[in-house]
Amino acid sequence: MDTKLITYAIPCYNSAEYMDACIESILACNRPDDIEIIIVDDGSTKDNTLEKARVWESTNPGVIRAIHQENGGHGAAVMTGLENARGLYFKVVDSDDWLDNDANMRMLDKLASFDEPIDLMLVNYVYEHTADNTQEVMKYTRMLPVDQLFTWDDCGHFGLTKYILMHSVIYRTQMLRDCGLTLPRHTFYVDNIFVYVPLPHVKTIYYLDVDMYRYFIGRDDQSVNESVMMSRIDQQLRVTRIMIDAVQLPGDVPEKRLERYMENYLSMMMCICSIFLRMINTVDAEDERDAIWRYLKENNSDVYRRVRHSVLNMGTNLPT
Fold first, then answer.
1. Which of 36, 46, 162, 308 could form a disulfide with 4 if both were Cys (CB 3.0 to 4.6 A apart)?
2. Which pLDDT tens digit goes with each residue over 301-314?
3. 42: burial class by Cβ within 10 Å (0-12, 13-18, 19+)?
4. Burial class (CB in 10 A: 0-12, 13-18, 19+), 135
């Protein structure tokens, strides 16, 4: 089958209520020769997600494909999208989020203009706070060269609140496959693995300063809800251990600025684990907090010393 410029993978699980808006926002670019959308129904049981996906496929032949699988979680759905992608580039769009059309078209134009495929394009993302109808735009203009090809050596300093997230990345599809990316099944928070593990394999980057990805935030059952994160702390710990194992710092990352960024990202992950385990405030949770730090020390002692004494983690691990 013909190669497309980009594949948008949409993991869906009981998403019938909001998936249409997501799909419509991508189709609005009206570029059927350039795009494909893979809707992955991850074993939905409570609504007609699969039926909707098949209707979208039948009304958009050659552009939309519907794939049904047994429930395996968000990571399994992303991997199914990656395995079946025909696009030169690969973008994950969660089914309750959407894309700004003007920004998406600019992104497509830029991707199509490169003589040689790049490994990573970055765009801005926007927190859409539905409770009070406010927006918060997350940009990289102070850290990255704008509208030009660059490498990690050209990057500036990332602040403690600035990270490359799944919302902002468009990876070259074959690069993701070649780096051996694997996401665990039945696990939330795998987006951290998705953006972290491929970074040492990225050699060419382009940052397009457009507010493309719109990240819906405000539902009580979202994975980033505080009470939900506390109930799923075991999955946060699992993801953090996978990240510790996947990249040995600094040895696996020759670019110093990238190595420093990845260390800060890992520090943030350790901080999240520590904070939520402290909030749970049980003997078992305290044992788990000790265990995750011990795991980092045993598997990467150099990083352990720096991360343990970082600004993020000094306060969160005091006995009080």
1. 36
2. 989 999 998 878 87
3. buried
4. exposed
